[in-house]
Amino acid sequence: MERDGQLELYRLLAARLKETHTRVSDPEVPDDTRRELTRRLLAVTAAAKHDLADAARRLDALTAELDDLGIPDR
Q1: Contact at 8 Å (CB) between 58 and 16?
Q2: In this structure, are residues 24 and 37 in contact, taking their beta carbons and an 8 Å threshold?
Q3: Rounded to whole angstroms, how far apart are CA atoms 23 and 44?
């Protein structure tokens, strides 16, 4: 049963990563900002391979920053 729970957590995190990638790649985001956000998004993706909870926390922080920067959801 725990394995099913882990798979669901991976699915949820993957969906959130995909949404965040869409936001970061918005053409309205300045190049310098996009590079930094992309670097952080890659770090979150790498963290997800080892620690889902840490990756989720990092993604929460990145999403909050996107909100603060006014980068819209698509």
Answers
A1: no
A2: yes
A3: 15
- Output the 3-class SS for 8-51: HHHHHHHHHHHHHHHHHCCCCCCHHHHHHHHHHHHHHHHHHCCC
**pTM here?**
0.87
User: For every one of its 74 residues, what pLDDT tens digit does the chain have, with 9 covering 90 and above?
Assistant: 467 778 898 999 999 999 999 999 999 999 999 999 999 999 999 999 999 999 999 999 999 999 999 999 87
Residue 26 contacts residue 74 (beta carbons within 8 Å) = yes
CA gap 34, 30 in Å, rounded: 6
